[in-house]
């Protein structure tokens, strides 16, 4: 299968995906990496792996619709089977999301439906939660609200530092995202009627 990965930052999830492809653990290839930030280190990771690394600046577009139109045109040149959001920090328009419905995954650093949006680690600490984690979900027009495929939990220890918690969550992310992507690439994972389905069983 052909994957297009969208990033805005470091790209540690992208790196985990590239590493697992290299090891033969994902039945697919990354055809392109696209960023909305020129400084995104994920672009460097793509170049290092000889993968097209494309920066699309929001400057020069009058609206979100126009930006997403350009993004869609660029993505479609690579004829991807799956769009992977890996730390892509830009809200996508409903038209864009509908176009890739059932073919776009995101990873979010919380145990959804808890803590949609930003600052999830701090919010979990402030709420004195005992556990935190990450979720992989299909992307639907509701922000961070699409059907969850897999979650990974980590304990929150007393006096937990936010950075340290974030690191432990991200360690889990790098394990779980390649696994879920391979489920999709081997036709085991689908979205049916707004539900995630693995091996014909609703999740
Ligand atoms: C991850 O924590 C992911 O859950 C969130 O953004 C972060 C991206 O990290 N959506 P990286 O760019 O993959 O290193």
Automatic annotation (TrEMBL):
The keyword Transferase applies. (6R)-10-formyltetrahydrofolate binds at residues 64, 89-92, 106. InterPro entries: Formyl_transf_N, Formyl_transf_N_sf, GART. Residues 3-181 form the Formyl transferase N-terminal domain. Signal peptide: none annotated. HAMAP family: PurN. It is an enzyme of class 2 (transferase). GO terms for molecular function: phosphoribosylglycinamide formyltransferase activity. SUPFAM superfamilies: Formyltransferase (SSF53328). PANTHER family: PHOSPHORIBOSYLGLYCINAMIDE FORMYLTRANSFERASE. Catalyzes the transfer of a formyl group from 10-formyltetrahydrofolate to 5-phospho-ribosyl-glycinamide (GAR), producing 5-phospho-ribosyl-N-formylglycinamide (FGAR) and tetrahydrofolate. This is Phosphoribosylglycinamide formyltransferase. It comes from the Bacteria. N(1)-(5-phospho-beta-D-ribosyl)glycinamide binds at residues 11-13. The record marks 144 as: Raises pKa of active site His. The active site is at 108 (proton donor). Its EC number is 2.1.2.2. The keyword Transferase applies. It comes from Paraglaciecola algarum. Pathway: Purine metabolism; IMP biosynthesis via de novo pathway; N(2)-formyl-N(1)-(5-phospho-D-ribosyl)glycinamide from N(1)-(5-phospho-D-ribosyl)glycinamide (10-formyl THF route): step 1/1. It catalyses: N(1)-(5-phospho-beta-D-ribosyl)glycinamide + (6R)-10-formyltetrahydrofolate = N(2)-formyl-N(1)-(5-phospho-beta-D-ribosyl)glycinamide + (6S)-5,6,7,8-tetrahydrofolate + H(+). Keywords: Purine biosynthesis, Transferase. Belongs to the GART family.
